[in-house]
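Input set for joint prediction.
Command: fold jointly, output tokens.
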Amino acid sequence: MATLTKNEIKITTCETSKINSIDFSNLAFGQVFSDHMLTCDFKDGKWQSPEIVPYGPLTLEPSAKIFHYGQSIFEGMKAYKDANDNVFLFRPMDNIKRLNISAKRLAIPELPEAYFMEGLKALLDLDKDWIPTAEGSSLYIRPFIFASGEGFHASPANAYKFIIATAPSGAYFSGKVKVLIEEKYSRSANGGVGFAKAGGNYAGQFYPTQLAKDKGYQQVIWTDDTSHEYIEEAGAMNVFVRINDTLLTSPVSDRILDGITRKSILELAEAEGIKTEVRKVKVSELVEAAKNGSLKEMFGAGTAAVISPISGFGFRGEDFEIPEQDNSFGLQLKERIVAIQTNKTEDPYGWRMKV
Amino acid sequence: MATLTKNEIKITTCETSKINSIDFSNLAFGQVFSDHMLTCDFKDGKWQSPEIVPYGPLTLEPSAKIFHYGQSIFEGMKAYKDANDNVFLFRPMDNIKRLNISAKRLAIPELPEAYFMEGLKALLDLDKDWIPTAEGSSLYIRPFIFASGEGFHASPANAYKFIIATAPSGAYFSGKVKVLIEEKYSRSANGGVGFAKAGGNYAGQFYPTQLAKDKGYQQVIWTDDTSHEYIEEAGAMNVFVRINDTLLTSPVSDRILDGITRKSILELAEAEGIKTEVRKVKVSELVEAAKNGSLKEMFGAGTAAVISPISGFGFRGEDFEIPEQDNSFGLQLKERIVAIQTNKTEDPYGWRMKV
Ligand SMILES: Cc1ncc(COP(=O)(O)O)c(C=O)c1O
Ligand SMILES: Cc1ncc(COP(=O)(O)O)c(C=O)c1O
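tokens >
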């Protein structure tokens, strides 16, 4: 695959920075965008050289396939700044690898890893002042690829756009969430695209999530689409359950995204002496555990929220509360992972990358 | 819901028509576009008035949700012109109704029917010279809605664009196709969005279809994602099977699109004295019928190709040919439906709409 160094990337800077117009003490998630973005076009059978340009509108033909056939994939990552203004990423090579796994499944040409990594480094160099430092905040990074090629024929496009945009962001969720175990709607099929970060997976979640919200829940726990007997993900996060002192999470599959937070948590938990089990978790087991008091915790895990504690779940019209724990695994593991991400502690795993 | 008449639609015409640059005797499918398009924005909580503007590029922010979360739906229809330059649509009310069924599932605000129908009529009035008349050709009509609202939060957008673009088109497929019965990849989940014309459904089909093409097939026959025992659709078409003199097709479900061609064929077949059965069709039944000679025909049915005959199928490494029939139901029904669509015969069903 093509190589490239950071210095080879053509940069066009914006005339005036928007940074002074942003209230960094009051950031929502992914609502304001940094001054620049990386863009890279696939055309004539290959990915062209990436460039950095001012963040701004895209122009597309109405027949661009993104509008018709949902050919799009994305990643989600974060950049952190420590007290000395050093900038860090967390396991970024896993994001580019997963982007290319998604690309293959969505019939999108794979991107040279160097275009992604060197492009991202150059972008962060330029926009490093946009990385917020307040606790819980970070620069959210959104790499994405979509079909820009034209035509109404339902077949892969011949042109694509890869973009990295960044957004200084506060916390994704505030506080604990109540979830609904979903038995009618599903997120993904066996042999489908659930393991890929494909745009279409998310649009399909909105309506069932809205129905859950109307009932007073904030998120949906997805179950397998065949039997609805097993819990699979929590909204757009992997899901963990603590029964007594064992932390359980479902194995990844073609329906479940191989989350970077999830696998980091599994490793950290082991190191912290927390027993983990990767196995399918039945809804009935969860209900049983909630009833007999052995269900101690439940949380979602993903880049945006890191760990998102769940205060209770609804199932078939009944609500089950999960009582507060003094020694919360979720809190403990979140502290560990955030400390590594933000360079507040040693990183024996080599996960943190200084850029 | 909002009302509107054709004459209330604001029209901005293009300065010079492109029509003379188009070779109408040699049209591909959905590759060239007529002079104008209808556009309509959803913002501030409602669909604004539709307008007709010159067909041309759209401008969107990089954070528009269409690029990230696949929130998009579409329809496919055709306009035909008869010898007296009268213009006809085929069951267009079913398209607007289905568009709104898709909208609901994808958490997209439903569109007032009048905006669709009156907008389309006004557009066809203006661009009627773009409707080709050669046999097998038509003006392909592509209504679509996508999320233009901004933000990286995985939730429904607050702004959408509805567009109708049209493309003078030749036949979608040429000749018979060989199909592969797919047992690994799936198109849709139980409780998923397969019944909706959601963009993401199509992107997910591209890679498995490419694998089938690499093996010498042109299309995939999708099976249910749970057992892979039942045939469900043929690529982006409904699928029909003729065993002896009975025409079979699967019932629609939340995994299978409720095709307008499919239901028209079922009605026409009855009227032609062809026995039909709407029931699940097992792959094993198909293989058995192919072996004992009772499998007489197989075809896909959809707006783009109308009826697309299948010459044989592959299953688990074995190829099964379907011999040519003298009295082909597929051909007979295609003739009937096209005759109605193009005003060459009476339309006892009220399916044809003169615009
Ligand atoms: C469906 C889904 N599951 C899980 C995750 C968590 O993955 P990661 O920890 O890599 O962010 C994500 C992305 O955030 C996701 O979209
Ligand atoms: C998945 C799928 N199935 C079936 C059909 C056929 O539907 P219709 O006959 O309404 O065009 C389509 C659309 O053409 C489709 O996209």
